[in-house]
Amino acid sequence: MEENRRVVVRLPHRLIDALDAVAGGEGRPRSDVIRESVEFYLAEQKRLQLRQQLIAGYQELGFLNAALAEEQWDLAGLGRE
Description:
By secondary structure, the protein is mostly helical. The chain is built from 2 helices and no strands.
């Protein structure tokens, strides 16, 4: 089982009140809601980073595909319009 470590975080009263309302409404400890929120945030950041990498890869491949297509036109002796 994974060992838990204690982290001290300062939050404004309004966030603590909202957090307590959610945790109380779900019958869960505050720390569970915080842990789940951090896990969600980190997963979302990872998803956004992957999306940016995919966009960059597709853009890079676009230039490569265009260059290969032009090369094929030249090899075939066909003119481009």
